[in-house]
Amino acid sequence: MEKRFFLVSILSIAVFSIGYSQSKAEKEAAAQALFESAKAAIESKDFVIVPDSYEKEDGTMETNTDNSHFLAYEGGQYLFLQGSIVCNNNYTNKTTVNSFEQKIDKKGNLSVLMQISGSQVNARVEIMVRKGTNYAEVIITPSNGKTKTFSGEIVPRSKAKYYKKSNII
Fold first, then answer.
1. What secondary structure letter does DSSP report for 168?
2. Taking a C-beta distance cutoff of 8 angstroms, is the pair 34, 25 a contact?
3. Residue 37 and residue 135: Cα distance in Å, rounded?
4. What is the value of pTM for the model shown?
5. Contact 84, 90 (CB under 8 A)
6. Does residue 81 form part of some domain?
């Protein structure tokens, strides 16, 4: 009886550990698929980042649930910035991308550097995405005004849920 219990216990542990390793491999594959999707969206210059957290003026982090704050690169033509979290006003800022540089470092992390200009915003935009995720850290450094730092998922524009106001400047 004890031998039977012992064999069943060993077999259960073996089955559980095999299932766990497959589950871990599946999670890693899903995370890599998200990274590849974000990378493809960046390369096609057709993506959206809606901040889920941002740095307040006093340096503390705050959570965002409002989808009217966003950064959207639409069809490789214009970069739209909307909301006080992303830029220093509440308008929909239509900007032209003057330079766009994309790099992958030795660890496989993706970084994007853009120089943008518009009627209300002239800035440097830095986007960093760690390998194996679609989560981006963004720093917007305007030529005048306060630097904005936020983070959120990069998603293709066709799958993004964001609210673009009609007050485009």
1. B
2. no
3. 11
4. 0.83
5. yes
6. yes
Q: What is the CATH number of the domain that holds 128?
A: 2.40.128.410
Residues 6+ apart with CB under 8 A from 33: none
Please check whether residue 67 lies inside any domain of the structure: yes
CB 62 within 8 A of CB 54: yes
Helices (H) and strands (E) in the chain, counts: 1, 10
Q: Which two tokens stand for residue 94?
A: 């239509």
Domain count, the chain: 1
Tell me the residue range of the domain where 75 lies.
Answer: 39-159
Note down pLDDT in tens along the chain; length 169 residues.
555 555 455 555 555 555 555 688 888 888 899 999 999 999 999 999 999 999 998 999 999 999 999 999 998 889 999 999 999 888 999 999 999 999 999 999 999 999 999 999 999 999 999 999 999 999 999 998 899 999 999 999 999 999 988 878 8
Report CA Rg, the chain.
21
The residue behind tokens 């917007």 is 140
Give 33's strand partners: none
CA-CA distance, 135 to 34, in Å (whole number)?
9
The CA distance from 160 to 5, in Å, is: 53
Residue 164 lies in a domain: no
